[in-house]
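Per reviewer request, we include the raw input and output of the structure prediction for the construct analysed in the revised manuscript.
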Amino acid sequence: MAIKKQAGPVVTTIDSLSHDGRGVAHVDGKATFILGALPGEEVSFKYSLRRRNLDEGVVDEVLRPSPERVTPRCDRFGVCGGCTLQHLDPKAQVRAKQQTLLDSLTRIGGVEPDRVLEPLTADNPWGYRRKARLGAKLVHKKGRVLVGFRERGAAFITDLERCEILYPPVGERLADLGELISRLSIRDQIPQIELAAAEDACVLVFRILQPLTSEDRRILNAFGRDNCLYIYTQEGGPKTIKALNEAPQELAYDLPEYGVKIRFLPTDFTQVNFELNRLMVQRAMELLDPQPEERVLDLFCGLGNFTLPISTLAAEVVGVEGDAGLVRRARENATLNDRDNARFFTADLFGDLSKEPWLRDRYQKALLDPPRSGAAEVLEHLPRCGVERILYVSCYPATLARDAGELVKRRGYRLSAAGVMDMFPHTAHLESIAVFDRE
């Protein structure tokens, strides 16, 4: 590793890629995280932050590029905070994420999987993002409204004409959305737009801090009609979300392999990548392998994304979720799909579960799909319920690794398999899946 100090930039060689997509070098023996650098590259960089234990920097010039470096599709890459890996070949992105997962399992959890699963990827890594929260701001110096993701490490909205990872009916119209807001009387009172795209409908929820005029309503409705978009407004909390005029008949996505349809509301949690979600559910069913005589527990079940497919394979499935609204809609989805062997409960899965009725039952298998904070609070209950196999779907490798260490070292399970799923191409976000079996 080269270490050569200059009056301005510093030259070094990049050793590896960090979990957030920055190149990692060691300069004067100190770990240095360099934005825009890739493993194996020789770069010159400038320091952006210096700490006692580590430093940060930004690439000034790539002196010897990696063979896996590619030209970013977006001309605002490096400025916009929406992506961090467009400069890395998509296949190399997945390999890097797989290594991040395995490193986390070893370093944090002290465990290794018996089998490393082949990474799960969708066919098209572009235009996949069907859920997003976009910032909006009237910038007087530019004389117009900007709509998009925030700049990396800053509060400013990125000046974007289009976004390559957003669902195209919206990603191709960011400039149009800015122009639309600029025509409204409350152009400086709309801080964000939330995107929620279903199979056959696309909703935009405009957060408004002041009431719309009748002319504002006319302008928004015309834009929605002309672009086949449904316009909603939100004046306060989630309960204030309502369609401005016409509402879609339903927002839903299909899981055709299991004959399941999942309905949702615009602000409900759904996976952002529909194609990858279908592949993920299919892999989850293959790994969990529910049998016709088995009872399965699905924790952090949400709308029933995994629960309802499980119900087509197992004798019974119990879904548990902390959000009462999601549980209500999960029950509605069970009714919609004629799944009378799926039951749902509302419970705080981070709190005291000792009095929960569903924990008095026995289950052969369990599926966990927790948020970034992981599932530490529920792990002790699984062996007590007789669970022989656990399928763990994770959006954050550090907490998966922590929980894997707990399951293997204290709860009597082995880590049978683990691998990554590329839910968020061109970003450092890492979705993964792991299987644990009782010893």
